């Protein structure tokens, strides 16, 4: 069972008791649970709980790309059960050998107190953007049934926006790009649950740009 929490594209986390039940159910059926916790450092509400709390047989995946701001450095880590270490070593030697020395030195600097202070300030900045953009999307007519608690995404329902392409995320994102200069990603990239209705917004951009995008979409939807 492969899960991501917080998830891309919804920015929501699996509730701890629910995750525990998933791990127990998968274990009872002889399976393994692998949880991508790449966005866990970017949690805004409850204190996040790692899936590792639910047993030594759980695998977690993590990355320096998001909280540590090292997107593109190709550096991450796995926590694996002891019994899997030898097999994962064989895989990693053949697929990867090792991370570049440059990336490893940069990652060490992530744990300096002054660097961690910057990450914490960034996390709070993301929280402020979330607190701005979710109500703003709702006031533009998008459906956002839950407030995302992590990552930097909102997965919004387009069915009720005032636009001829409402409910058609491909056509709507095309119009937003060409008629308003605002880029969002249509749901088709993210799975099978009504992808034609949903769009993903990323708020990994400056607050002022989010405000500009909201103004432009307001104009587009009032035509
Ligand atoms: C859930 C999730 N995991 C991992 C990644 C990418 O991590 P990396 O840059 O380490 O490949 C992303 C990037 O969008 C993501 O959304």
What's the structural blueprint in terms of helices and strands?
Layout: E1 2-4, H1 16-28, E2 34-36, E3 59-63, E4 76-79, H2 85-95, H3 101-109, H4 113-139, E5 153-157, H5 169-180, E6 185-186, E7 198-202, H6 207-221
Parallel strand pairs: 1-2, 2-3
Antiparallel strand pairs: 3-4, 5-7, 6-7
This protein binds pyridoxal-5'-phosphate.
Q: From the 3D structure, determine the CATH topology of the largest domain.
A: Aspartate Aminotransferase, domain 2
According to CATH, what is the class of the largest domain?
A: Alpha Beta
State the CATH architecture of the largest domain.
3-Layer(aba) Sandwich
Cα-to-Cα separation, first versus last residue:
46 Å
Uncertain spans: none
**Total domain count:** 2
Strand percentage lies at 5-15%
How many DSSP E strands?
7
| CATH level 4 superfamily of the largest domain | Type I PLP-dependent aspartate aminotransferase-like (Major domain)
